[in-house]
Amino acid sequence: MKAAIISDIHSNLEALQAVLKDIKKRRIKSIYCLGDLVGYGANPNECIAIVSQESDATIAGNHDYAAVNKTDISTFNPVAAEAIRWTQKKLTEDSKKILSKLPLTHSTGDLLLVHGSPNKPEQWHYLFALDDFHHQFSAFMEQLCFVGHSHIPSAVFQDTNSYTDFLRENPFPLLKKRRYIINVGSVGQPRDLDPRASYAIYDGNNDSLEIIRVEYNIPLAEQKIVKAGLPEVLAERLSAGK
Ligand code: ZN
Fold it and tell me: What integer pLDDT is reported at residue 158 of this predicted model?
């Protein structure tokens, strides 16, 4: 089985369309989405409709739940909170229904999907340093756990001796004696100084994983953010990739 895993679209229609085009070009049929469909960008309803149609399973991100008042925005920074309030005004009833029903996790075969962390997913923890990942492996049974949330693509493995480390190669083989937590990066707001949209391809036939980067029309996404009256910093950060 081959699957594309996308995350953190954040209402960026241009990035989402470019990524889906790339997935289709590679003839990959299964798509999973790790949440944060909305927040920051100018096309929330369009992104929700497309992901609902294209994705085999979609889970909730903190911005999705915030947009339908299922999570508190007191921990959001002022710009993120402003974008959530803007999004709440724009969401159609259909969109609200879809976001409200998204689950926190989804398990399918060897794969677990979660937005922030497998341990206490409802608390939206960020995984950055190796120490953040280390104790997460006991929180799930599957061989692979896919996460988003930090918008920084990375992969960490744990072997049978509980030795944990980052993987530096891309693509990389998935070894049976190892378990993995893989951050697929962000489609709509990358923060690793590479402004191209990010997603992952899981190849279960060849036991491999690859992070893919896709160019998209950044100036158009930025113009829409400014025109929508969203904070301009949300436009500027797209071309900076941070
Ligand atoms: Zn996000």
Answer: 97
Q: Are 176 and 162 in contact (CB under 8 A)?
A: no
Q: How far is the CA of 240 from the centre of ligand 1 (A)?
A: 16
- From the list 178, 172, 181, 180, the residue with the least C-alpha distance to 148 is 181
Q: What is the pLDDT of residues 39-70, one digit of tens each?
A: 999 999 999 999 999 999 999 999 999 999 99
Distance 47 CA to ligand 1 centre (A): 14
Q: Cα(61) to centroid of ligand 1, in Å?
A: 7
- For ligand 1, the distance from its centroid to the CA atom of residue 73, given in whole angstroms, is 13
Peptide bond into 78 cis (omega under 30): no
Taking the centre of ligand 1 as the mean of its atom positions, its distance from the CA of residue 96, in whole angstroms, is 18
Top-level class of domain 2-240: alpha beta
User: What is the residue extent of each domain of the chain?
Assistant: 2-240
Residues with CB under 5 A from ligand 1 (ion): 8, 36
- Average pLDDT (92-117) is 98
| 3-class secondary structure, 114 | strand
